[in-house]
Input
Amino acid sequence: MEVASSEIEVGLVTSGDRHEAARLEARPVDSLWVGGHLASTNPSPEVMVGLTRLVAATERVKIGSAILILPLYPPALIAKQVADLDRVSNGRLVLGIGVGGEYPQEFRAVGVPLGERGGRANEILPLLRRFWSGEEVTHHGDHYSIEEVTITPTPSQPGGPPLVVGGRKEPAMRRAAMLGDGWFPYLYSPRRYAASVATIKAQAAEIHRDLARFGWYVWVFLNIDDDGERAREQAARTIGGTYSQDFGPLIDRVAAAGNVPEVTEKLCEFFDAGARHFVFAPVTGAESSAPTLDRLFSEVLPALQSHAASPAGGAA
Output
């Protein structure tokens, strides 16, 4: 398995606060990402509102959703909102999508059966591209019936923003291979990432799909400290608080947490596994993430770029 390009892109997860977004955009980043939920156990913004705030707070970087739970929304509504945001941002939008499911109350809230979430997402993805063509859409599917609907103005990006599929399991990989413009897993080890790349490439080959323009994203929980054990403990507590479970035994597999050499090694492993767009989510607990980001940009990323440029970089 090999991903042809050696170019690395760097993204950061943000709350969408305009002051924080401005500070992060001043760093040498390619993208900023915002997540959100409709009704999770942890208070969070709604993702489309978060994207809107991020559009208003930035000028240069790509902006993305990490992750929009697609089956919670009517397809025409999402198509219209995304088209408008892409135009306002001058074509900077990337739509990270997933099917959710960890919070069943979100689906009850909008009257969408939990068991239909995968089928609905698979039906919505092609519909979005049809809406973004500016042509009239009539569609009668398993979950949606649409009669003579046209959405204008169309997005700034021809055909609409990239549709990057998030997830962890094989149905999500199949969705990415067949319908997506990229793959964006989270809580992954480099070994698991490499296996997912191989699966997606094999499934795309079965349908004769060219993945030359496909994006290989990875969400990376990040903490850097001279005391590597302290960094891992902080990261485990922070992630565990979000997911309400003990991440101590898992932290070395699902995060890049440790001292500079340890974090650099982990990111090089992700690169060799096929990842090209790294989206970092600092997990520093109550402490400021600024020192971790300072060391990421000044010490870790130069070493990762050097590895990527080396003859061995990207070998699987």
